[in-house]
């Protein structure tokens, strides 16, 4: 088609002809593979979609037709990354069914687990409320005469508490899933996931705690990334990706605002790589459209981008 950009031979890292701004390698499939299998891949997926739309508009403005669709032809339709892992969904479904399969007898159990995870009054309050409701309904059913109003009221109370408890568990399960382990104290120093006065912590315990803390950081990064994608104005207010002491983003770095020192400290880039990112950002007028652009404008290799992609995001404005 005349005027449409053409992709030269050479695989995923070929060069585009037609638009001078796209003469550099365009590793869209490579960047896509970086996030395949990652729990937070939906963020980069959205960023890549934004980049695709931006380039299509740029080509149309330059006189191109629909050739921009070729940029995504190399991405298979079946590689859509889900926002939440299957493990989370299965766990949430299983815990939500506990009140139902136990006929209301175990309705307080998910909230006992939630109270232990949160360690807050709201967690213990929900557990105490469901426990009293369950005991009251079962005692009423057990002691009420047959075909009496008390028996009907006890049965209705049990049914309502079972349904409400199941729905409540489903809606609040993320709080339990993402809650960090409570801190314990060992030798006067706080140790994540332990309790004061507990037994000495073994190497295996410390390893498990380190893994749990690393997973908690990953969850915080996913949560902060979703917030930045859905509500960028709020993300800017919270200073997500800029090392804000008020909001724990799990160590995310906003490549549109972070200086070279922060890129080195938080994203673990080398000094040369951080300088290249800052220089590329200045050439682009102070804003990247997606993390994938780092491979084009800052010349980060595919392997290097794979190592740091989960720590980076682009917050507009």
Automatic annotation (TrEMBL):
It comes from the Bacteria. Residues 1-25 are annotated as: Disordered. The chain crosses the membrane at residues 124-144, 150-171. Signal peptide: none annotated. Keywords: Membrane, Transmembrane, Transmembrane helix. InterPro entries: RuvA_2-like (IPR010994). Residues 1-12 have a biased composition (Basic residues). This is Helix-hairpin-helix domain-containing protein. It comes from Mangrovactinospora gilvigrisea.
